[in-house]
Specification:
A hairpin with a 5-residue loop joins strand 3 and strand 4 (123-127). This protein has 340 residues and is an alpha/beta fold. 56% of the residues lie in helices and 13% in strands. The strands form two sheets. A five-stranded mixed sheet has the order 1-5-3-4-2. Strands 6-7-8 form a three-stranded antiparallel sheet. It is elongated, with a radius of gyration of 48 Å. The relative contact order is 0.05.
């Protein structure tokens, strides 16, 4: 047998042994005997365990976040931990507050107040000042609250936007909120405020007309925020600019006293005494008798003279006579004026 045939036979035997599962026996693998060696061998298993720990930690963090969100969505907070920040409270009449208080005395709170944590462990009220006041007056110790995060500006904006969406927010309160945002935000304009709030630019302009009202009028509106709407304010601001501040103030005083409504107040403020109509003169009537019969009735109202006769013929005759008298009177007056 040639060398080539021997090699081919050997290869065939090796292949047959591999297919039968016997194969060529391998030398036994020895386990690492040193600590570094054993550590290297355990590295893949440690990496796998580390991944499992990381997954458990992420799941735990998610659970904590969910628990915190659930707590923030409705936490009963002690009233003595709630503090008020100036400028966030909306106006409410005494009558409305009494209604709110008595409603909460007998019914469950439907809308929790909104608060934000502050550094000293207390919470500043973002929205719900009157609900907190009502709970304090009826002797409650805690109130259901939603806890939010954010900056001071975000909290202030949130309070104003929450109030803005309420139908009961007066135009004066909108003005106060918009003014704060306009002064605080660099580059902010009335047009941009209108876009952000969903109001028309015209209405936004009317709202900012509060800036142009007399000080005394603003004091009255401060006491009663629903006294004037934006449309009336725009008109009154225009009259104030025209130099009618006293008339505007007098008109709003009568409005505040309940003597007139907003429309009448605007008309009263627009009134110009110099153009007031003079009262109509009282007519004076005289009757001239002809015996027992009426000859002529003379009626005068101011500079107007009217004569009533019994017949057309008599009226025509007297008219001709009056014309002659009036012409002579006119000539005499002209002569006097020429001499003067």
């Amino acid at each position: 047998m040639s060398l080539r045939d021997k090699l081919a036979a050997k290869n065939a035997a090796i292949a047959a042994a591999t297919e039968s599962g016997r194969g060529i026996p391998r030398p036994p693998v020895e386990m690492p005997r040193t600590a570094p060696g054993r550590l290297l061998e355990a590295m893949p298993m440690l990496a796998e365990k580390e991944k499992e720990v990381e997954a458990l930690a992420a799941e735990l963090a998610t659970m904590r976040e969910r628990l915190e969100n659930a707590s923030n969505a409705g936490a009963d907070l002690p009233l003595d931990q709630l503090v008020e920040i100036t400028g966030r409270r909306r106006k409410m009449s005494k009558e409305k507050f009494v209604e709110l208080r008595e409603n909460l005395r007998h019914n469950k709170l439907i809308h929790p107040v909104v608060v934000r944590r502050i550094d000293d462990g207390r919470y500043e009220i973002v929205s719900g000042h009157h609900r907190v006041d009502a709970y304090r007056e009826i002797g409650r110790e805690a109130i259901r609250s939603v806890i939010i995060e954010g900056s001071d500006d975000e909290a202030t904006d949130g309070a104003f936007n929450a109030n803005l969406m309420q139908s009961g927010l007066t135009d004066y309160e909108k003005y106060l909120g918009f003014k704060i945002k306009l002064e605080r935000t660099q580059g902010m304009t009335q047009a941009k405020l209108a876009e952000l709030s969903g109001l028309s630019t015209t209405l936004m302009s009317y709202i900012f007309s509060f800036d142009q009202l007399p000080v005394d009028v603003l004091s009255m509106v401060e006491e009663k925020p629903d006294l004037l709407g934006a449309t009336a304010v725009a008109a009154l601001a225009g009259y104030t600019k025209d130099g009618k501040s006293e008339q505007v103030t007098a008109a709003v005083k009568r409005l505040a006293a309940g003597e007139i409504d907003q429309g009448q107040a605007v008309k009263l403020a627009a009134h110009d005494p110099s153009k007031a109509k003079k009262p109509a003169p009282t007519p004076v009537t005289e009757k001239i008798k002809q015996g027992k019969s009426l000859y002529c009735e003379i009626r005068r109202a101011g500079s107007v003279l009217r004569l009533n006769f019994q017949t057309d013929e008599e009226a025509e005759r007297i008219q001709a006579a009056l014309r002659r008298v009036l012409e002579e009177e006119s000539k005499a007056k002209a002569a006097v004026e020429s001499e003067a």
